[in-house]
Amino acid sequence: MFAFAFLDCEFGGLDPELHDITEIGVVVTDYRLRELSQAEWKVRPRPERVSEEAARIFGYDEEVWAQAPGVRQVLTEFADLMPSDCTVVPAGQNVRMDVTFLELAYKKCEIPYPFDYHVIDLATLYYAWSLVAGETVSALSLRQSAMTAGLLDKGGVAHRALADARLTLETFRHLIGRLAPREPTEPVPDAND
Q: I need a labelling partner for 30 at 20 to 30 A (CA). Which of 52, 121, 158, 174 fits?
């Protein structure tokens, strides 16, 4: 049996060797996408491992993050939140990036990695949906897929881990619903139209 961890992380930059995880948000679901739990953590980074650009994007404030727990504590609590009676698959928007940072952090902390090696990526689902729906995709971002789903207006996406994890789950649910089987008499849209 599977469970899914719809997750989002914020980082001090894009290189897991040079930057730290600064925030983790997760919504855990069962295999039918029913929510089981959710949590969010700020993670205390080493200030020199947070780039100015990343700090601006996710609203990093050194004084606020100085009060956050360290990465070892957060990774332990994060792993403890996962159901132990099934295989937990990480899911998210561009989730490979999150998984890369998490795998490295778990390894450095010598804590067993709590997830399966498979991933469920919203960007891939969004692109597949666009092919089936015959709609052109202008970007593979969370913002674009959520706007297409009618879950977000043209305003910006706040880069908060739990909010992005939840938006990813809601967009995923929407796209799955749009991919429901069609009646045999209903024509399949032509991708060239």
A: 158
Query: Do residues 7 and 19 touch, judged by C-beta distance below 8 A?
Result: no
User: Following CA atoms 89, 95, 96, 97 in sequence, which dihedral angle do they give, to the nearest 10 degrees?
Assistant: -140
Residues of the chain with pLDDT under 70: 154-159, 180-193
66 contacts: CB under 8 Å, gap ≥ 6 = 44
Q: Which amino acid is at 92?
A: G
| All structural domains of the chain with their residue ranges | 2-178
**CATH fold for the domain made of 2-178:** Nucleotidyltransferase; domain 5 (3.30.420)
Amino acid letter, residue 40:
E
pTM: 0.89
One-letter amino acid of 136: T
Tokens at 3, concatenated:
């469970």
Write the burial class of residue 7 (CB in 10 Å: 0-12 exposed, 13-18 middle, 19+ buried).
buried
CB 117 within 8 A of CB 33: no
